[in-house]
């Protein structure tokens, strides 16, 4: 579920996740089963899986490999 005002960049995928108002999801990010709070910033190519929860105003940089 995507709340109003959510920005999803090109190539990002959101499945079985809840994303609150004003959140931003970066290019190529993958969310599957995540809970993202208001005004969060998910970085490009970040991966958030089942059980991952970010509180209001949090940010997630992309994971290094």
UniProtKB/TrEMBL annotation:
<dbReference type="InterPro" id="IPR011004">
    <property type="entry name" value="Trimer_LpxA-like_sf"/>
</dbReference>
<feature type="domain" description="Glucose-1-phosphate adenylyltransferase/Bifunctional protein GlmU-like C-terminal hexapeptide">
    <location>
        <begin position="2"/>
        <end position="50"/>
    </location>
</feature>
<protein>
    <recommendedName>
        <fullName>Glucose-1-phosphate adenylyltransferase/Bifunctional protein GlmU-like C-terminal hexapeptide domain-containing protein</fullName>
    </recommendedName>
</protein>
<dbReference type="Pfam" id="PF24894">
    <property type="entry name" value="Hexapep_GlmU"/>
</dbReference>
<dbReference type="InterPro" id="IPR056818">
    <property type="entry name" value="GlmU/GlgC-like_hexapep"/>
</dbReference>
């Amino acid at each position: 579920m995507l709340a109003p005002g959510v920005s999803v960049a090109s190539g990002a995928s959101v499945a079985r996740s809840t994303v609150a108002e004003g959140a931003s999801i970066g290019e190529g990010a993958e969310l599957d089963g995540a809970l993202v709070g208001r005004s969060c910033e998910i970085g490009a190519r970040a991966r958030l899986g089942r059980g991952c929860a970010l509180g209001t105003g949090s940010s997630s940089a992309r994971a290094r490999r």
